[in-house]
Amino acid sequence: MLIGSVVLAAIAAVEVRFLPGWVDFVVLPLIVAVLIWLLAFFRDPERAIPAEEHLMVSPADGVVSDITRLESDPLLGGPSVRVGIFLSVFNVHVNRSPCDGRVRSVVYKKGRFINAMDHARASDENESNTIVIEDPTNGVPIAVVRQIVGLIARRIVVTVKEGDLLQRGQRIGMIKFGSRTELSIPQSLQPEVVVKHGQVVRGGADAIARLGRPIHATGTKANADEEFEPIAPRETPA
């Protein structure tokens, strides 16, 4: 964003110095509009992360585009539910962790740039980055977040790596200029999806699913007979 702003400012300076005065009324407003749009696109607001026990929160801002039951998910080792979220160019594009856990793997896949609104094809064929999150106490995968590029989006940014401990709502990356983010949850956690097709969600702030079977929490030591997540309120991680 900084580089783009500097380039636009330089263009404006050249334009003011060398081009006829009447061009100011055409070019300068356009440059200002683009700068405002860039600032809006790269905004990164703080979010109040839900403290309710056993929730999976949205990994992205956008509109719930599809909710799909999968009979077999190789990354989760069994059946799962996948919630797709479409991000327009007007949404916040920062991605967040849906739950506490540890990064098991981060896998980049080359692919196409099909319109992200074509949900099935975009999910299967587009360039993507897949983050698998596991229970830090036993290594069992508990969630998959897939960042998928779209027709305009051409770059995925990931800010976490294998072995990192995550907190619910923590920033994990972003996708630039319109895209799709998926959250997959294993059926073994008995997820109850609490969103509907077409619903607007906010990353880190809005619940996607409530778990019937809770998971262990980052940084805690569970009793042998009990699995849990912390229920104390917490702020958005920096």
Compact description:
The protein has 238 residues and is an alpha+beta fold. The protein has helices at 2-18, 24-41, 119-125, and strands at residues 55-57, 62-73, 78-87, 94-96, 101-109, 128-134, 141-149, 155-158, 165-166, 171-176, 179-186, 191-193, 200-201, 207-211.
Give a topology summary.
Elements: H1 2-18, H2 24-41, E1 55-57, E2 62-73, E3 78-87, E4 94-96, E5 101-109, H3 119-125, E6 128-134, E7 141-149, E8 155-158, E9 165-166, E10 171-176, E11 179-186, E12 191-193, E13 200-201, E14 207-211
Antiparallel strand pairs: 1-14, 2-3, 2-13, 3-11, 4-10, 5-6, 5-9, 6-7, 7-11, 8-10, 12-14
Helix pairs in contact: 1-2
Structure description:
With 238 residues, the chain is α+β, with helices and mostly antiparallel strands. Helix content is 18%, strand content 35%. The chain has 3 helices and 14 strands. The protein has helices at residues 2-18, 24-41, 119-125; strands spanning 55-57, 62-73, 78-87, 94-96, 101-109, 128-134, 141-149, 155-158, 165-166, 171-176, 179-186, 191-193, 200-201, 207-211. The strands form 3 sheets. Strands 9-5-6-7-11-3-2-13 form an 8-stranded antiparallel beta sheet, with helices on one face. A hairpin with a 6-residue loop joins strand 6 and strand 7. Helix 1 (2-18) packs antiparallel against helix 2 (24-41). It is globular, with a radius of gyration of 20 Å.
